[in-house]
Amino acid sequence: MTRPPRHTLTEDAQALAYGAGMAAFGIVMLTHLGFVTGQTAGLAVLISYVTGWGFGPVFFAINLPFYWLGYRRMGLAFTVKTFLAVAALSGLSMVLPDYVSFASLHPAVGAVLIGFVSGSALLALFRHGASLGGIGILGLYLQDRTGFRAGWTQMIFDACLFSVALLIRDWQTVAWSALGALVLNVVIAINHRRDRYIAT
């Protein structure tokens, strides 16, 4: 059987740029609406709301402990790509709000768009051997080892995170946020299939 073609360096670079860029755009929409989200990004958002610290530096710092797991479980290439994606997202999330604003964004529409944009960002990264760190690393590891979908692992973590979010945000905001997280995780669960997409 012929081995499937691997992605080129240029293709990987494009995927990292796309993934980080779309994820940063999702964060801009999310924080504009005052929403929360799941995974390590959600934890960083909650910390930024409570402390007033910027999302970018908090997100970057939270991910630092996960790189060792990424290296041990997924290899050097995955860890380097993930570090670059996390660093790019952290940086872009600090500068993009100066260039993107919203005069009107309905919470329902925003929630669905955040889910779609963030889901497509993660898919691009996953398919090129990277993630946005943290729970994404754990989810990919479990999927590769056990077949348990990365999207479902993230959904379990999200449920815990959203329970905490109810302590610091009103329930309507958390409910809209949950819709966005649900859309994101369904996108990942349906579309991240190694049996259908095998190039690495």
Automatic annotation (TrEMBL):
TM spans (from-to): 15-35, 41-62, 74-96, 108-126, 147-168, 174-191
Name the UniProt record assigns to this protein: YitT family protein
Gene Ontology, cellular component aspect: plasma membrane
InterPro entries referenced in this protein's UniProt entry, alphabetically: UPF0750_membrane, YitT
Species of provenance: Phaeovulum veldkampii DSM 11550
PANTHER family named among the record's database cross-references: UPF0750 MEMBRANE PROTEIN YITT, UPF0750 MEMBRANE PROTEIN YITT-RELATED
Topology versus the membrane: Multi-pass membrane protein
Principal location: membrane
Domain of life, source organism: Bacteria
Subcellular location: Cell membrane
Keyword terms: Cell membrane, Membrane, Transmembrane, Transmembrane helix
Pfam families, per database record: YitT_membrane
